[in-house]
């Protein structure tokens, strides 16, 4: 996890523009570098480094003797760099996993490069010999990337939008900053003036298709067919493989643990594989909540079962409320459920950074979207519509849960790993018949739970624990984080302001006091940038003005049973 930043064709003084790169310093607390591009005085790279792999030679932009005309700035982890080296006979100069991008590009061009990378990435690749600039981002947008491109060819690229919004440019006071689409690469021509012109934007991978890199995966061909035992076995094999490849790190590994199915499954498998690989330090797991919250109690059970070194972070309503503004600044969104769920994750990340030496953090993001874990999936009119909704959620992850997971951890210099979004695992799961993937017997993620039922990885009550929204599970049922926020915000936003919300904010007008409050804070930091969020995250097939799981009739909790 790092912070990348680059400018091409800047009219303004680079030393002034470079101040913008400092806005993402939190992403790479270990080292920092600016580098001008030879022969292009108005082009430069900025890089903030979190050293996770090859601590000696990992500075960027990466340049190797073999390809002196190639410059690479990337944020991510490429899990199959050793397999690709073996398959193609690449000779690496460093231990940096991203160096493979240079070799792949030299061998087969940008299309093959993007398609063969098994991992999470956002990169800027400059080829001065052919005067080309390439941008690319992984399938689900696990690593963030934003760009600004003006009509006259000024290009700015950054891991977070905050590193671009204050750039100066003669043609425009506020150049349009937008997210770079996941699963795409863009080709741009580099002119002698340092300006660029976009040539094409190409989608290189659709998450339903088996990825091109599956051919050189460590897991060989799996048995085909959809009988239940075969499917359950394949799910276990692919998910364990997804976790195993993500254990690549020279820094300490830890796990977020809410006590729900997803994070518990990840933590249990991480610990099992660490033992098999003789990683000889204890696995630290981290839970956050208010006193006696359901998540804390469930996480405690899981930690005791798997034998991790468990940390509990207790926060009160005041600390949660105080964090709202810095969380919205970090997130660059005003989406209700994203902000609400980010508070706990932001506070637990802050604790990890200050109190421990864990840097590489595993988490359960992506499972709800992939395995139909949201409570509203019980209301789906048909298995086919549920499958379509699952795909829509995966496509939009980069604006919601993946954005939350990246920004709340990156704000504290941590690197997130999300095995549920493994390309091979997700493409297999989505290839299963729609009927197999729906909730069964009133329980969501039924197939995933069934697949691990006989593994003894988790206590039965955790494996079959009903879904809790993270923002709700961190407080008790009697007084949810949702209710605490409503009570506080009710005092901050009067009724008249809400009545006139649509006049003040015609795009995505706030419908509740809570959404109004978040929008005010967002506009303070990012005025006029509301289009970064095309729409609010909301459940389907139910009538509700609020995304909290607690407002849905199906919601049940241990305390109510």
TrEMBL record:
The keyword Cell membrane is assigned to this record: no
Positions that bind L-glutamine: 97
Pfam families: Asn_synthase, GATase_7
Keywords recorded for this protein, A-Z: Amino-acid biosynthesis, Asparagine biosynthesis, ATP-binding, Glutamine amidotransferase, Ligase, Nucleotide-binding
Record-annotated site: Important for beta-aspartyl-AMP intermediate formation: 365
Gene Ontology molecular-function annotations: asparagine synthase (glutamine-hydrolyzing) activity; ATP binding
Active-site residues annotated for this sequence: 2 (for gatase activity)
Residues in Glutamine amidotransferase type-2 domain copies: 2-191
Reactions performed catalytically: L-aspartate + L-glutamine + ATP + H2O = L-asparagine + L-glutamate + AMP + diphosphate + H(+)
Binding residues annotated for ATP, in chain numbering: 256, 288, 363-364
GO BP annotations, alphabetical order: cellular response to glucose starvation; L-asparagine biosynthetic process; negative regulation of apoptotic process; positive regulation of mitotic cell cycle
Enzymatic class: ligase
Enzyme Commission number(s): 6.3.5.4
KW Isomerase (keyword) present: no
Pathway(s) annotated for this protein in UniProt: Amino-acid biosynthesis; L-asparagine biosynthesis; L-asparagine from L-aspartate (L-Gln route): step 1/1
Protein name: Asparagine synthetase [glutamine-hydrolyzing]
